[in-house]
Amino acid sequence: xxxxxxxxxxxxxxxxxxxxxxxxxxxxxxxxxxxxxxxxxxxxxxxxxxxxxxxxxxxxxxxxxxxxxxxxxxxxxxxxxxxxxxxxxxxxxxxxxxxxxxxxxxxxxxxxxxxxxxxxxxxxxxxxxxxxxxxxxxxxxxxxxxxxxxxxxxxxxxxxxxxxxxxxxxxxxxxxxxxxxxxxxxxxxxxxxxxxxxxxxxxxxxxxxxxxxxxxxxxxxxxxxxxxxxxxxxxxxxxxxxxxxxxxxxxxxxxxxxxxxxxxxxxxxxxxxxxxxxxxxxxxxxxxxxxxxxxxxxxxxxxxxxxxxxxxxxxxxxxxxxxxxxxxxxxxxxxxxxxxxxxxxxxxxxxxxxxxxxxxxxxxxxxxxxxxxxxxxxxxxxxxxxxxxxxxxxxxxxxxxxxxxxxxxxxxxxxxxxxxxxxxxxxx
Length: 428
Prior knowledge:
Its cofactor is pyridoxal 5'-phosphate. It catalyses: L-aspartate + 2-oxoglutarate = oxaloacetate + L-glutamate. By secondary structure, the protein is an alpha/beta fold. The chain folds into 2 domains: 125 residues, Aspartate Aminotransferase, domain 1, CATH 3.90.1150; 234 residues, Aspartate Aminotransferase, domain 2. The chain is 50% helix and 13% strand. The chain is built from 19 helices and 13 strands. The strands form 4 sheets. The protein has a 7-stranded mixed beta sheet. The chain has a two-stranded parallel sheet with strand order 1-12. The chain is globular and about 65 Å long.
């Protein structure tokens, strides 16, 4: 029986070969031969190069994640305590498509304020998202589906993935002025001109605080002027808030741009992330909210859930539980506020130390921007060639736009970093 089957297979293969069938069969192994390798992510590429470097003096100031003063990743005590409350009490059932209701409620209180009339009146459509990136992508797809002829204005520069998100959602992009290279601060006049000249009813992507990559934020007065001009032009503000609490150490202060827009009657959108401010990078916990009337908020939420359904169906439960427990437990929330302020204060302290160390070396350049900027990143003003010099001669790694992750700066390496920066810029 077996030998008869073997002979039949052999004869069949011989016939197929004679008829050119094998060539057709083998061609199916080359369906993807036209696919080229994707370009390396510039940030991940920095980390790869750093890990491959064997120098004992190497420094990584490219990573976009918090590190302690020993350069180690941190798990907050409030997170450990929240996980202790979860342990043994967690089933593995699906969350609803919109995610954890409790986590969403607590997220809205954090972003909009505990006494917000919008949330009290149920005029906010909100769903749990896969961190800030997922929240942005959900909104981009929502924008394309229901306002297909709209476009999005994105600041120059911005977090590189913003461009990818709206591109892959097929939303046309425009840009607006933001950073002023000469002053290494905000190009406010040009920004306001772009806001005024954009067609009425345009969509704008705004960083709520700790602008990535520049660390340059508008002042409160400037935010009020921006809000006023948005009102005049009937623009829609979509805030990406990835660093609430992490910028100044005070979540209320870091939400001031959003609060100003709400005071002025804007119906905004907001992407929240708990990666940085709770150290939940790998948990991918975020929230997307869109302000509307009470009736329309129900419709908008249902559509956001429908967009999520074919993407990932349901968001993960563990990180959402951590966030909701921390924000709803007075003792844990108090601990979180203390810890997030500690992280922010360490970053601010490293800014001061880096500037002082460079100035102490006699640099003839101004380094005020290091302490004027805020948040995880310092837009140093270093040229791509100077960044290459730092890498090749001093084993210091950062992205070629000169963005320094202040989380990678420690009391142990700040002097070495300052000296290296002075060496590559002293002839400027």
